Amino acid sequence: MSDNGPVRYKVAEAARLAGVSASTLRLWESQGLVVPGRSGTGHRQYSADDVARLKRVSWYRVERGLNPAAIREALESEEPSADGAETGQSSGLGRKLRSLRHAAGKTLDQVASDIGITASTLSTLERTSQGVGFKTLHDLAEYYATTVSRLSGEENEEVPAVIRAGEWRTWPETTPGVTVQLLAEGRRMMDCHRFVLAPGAASEGAYRHEGEEFMHVLSGRLELVLDSDQFFDLGPGDSLYFESRRYHSWRNRHDGETVLLWINTPPTF
């Protein structure tokens, strides 16, 4: 890393600065109290902001005697609101989810329990817009009576009639290996997307919603399962049309990248 780049601390260094053990840092990460970055080789890297957050976690735990859920709520109340300045790790989708939760008068633990995920997973999603699969993202959208597309920012009023090749806007990447690019923007009668799936990328569960959908495989291969018992192995040039109210899940079982044209109507995804 360049000498001019931001300082990054390894686990042992961050633990020493925060006055706790390395095992405590890993525990706090599993509880969603801190989300460190990763190096190119996958090792944890803590920023100066992360270290400051660790010190606040330690203070709340020791001086106030708070449990992890209460610490998450206390830290959240310290962060800028959705109308204020962004933190380095936060982005639009996470802020929207947190705003919707606040409007519903719900705590992290309440929503996580209702959805069937851990509070630490939800906390990470609200802070970083990452860490969940498409099924969980859809479940949250349904919980808040909205759609994944709207959460991901497809509500621009001023949109171009033509979107040139390679100039597609991209959704926040909540799931590693899944890239969703917008082929048409604004409030339309259809959600028109280009999915780019890395090897092994998947929906991580089955979901359903209102409407109908059409997919066309441009390259690679996709396995799609309807209602847990109908399996479709789709290759280049293959298309599939189905009712969105049927439970559907998908996975790229190809050893390379799979690219899909995917359309939902009405825009309920």
What does this structure look like?
- With 269 residues, the protein is an alpha+beta fold.
- 32% of the residues lie in helices and 19% in strands.
- It contains 9 helices and 10 strands.
- It has helices at residues 11-18, 22-30, 48-62, 68-78, 92-103, 108-115, 119-128, 134-143, 148-151; strands at residues 37-38, 44-45, 178-182, 191-197, 212-219, 222-226, 230-234, 239-243, 248-251, 258-265.
- The strands form 3 sheets. Strands 3-4-10-5-8 form a 5-stranded antiparallel β-sheet, with no helix packed on it. A 3-stranded antiparallel β-sheet has the order 7-6-9, with no helix packed on it.
- A hairpin with a 5-residue loop joins β1 (37-38) and β2 (44-45).
- α3 crosses α4 and α6 (108-115) crosses α7 (119-128).
- The radius of gyration is 20 Å and the shape is elongated.
- The two termini are 40 Å apart.
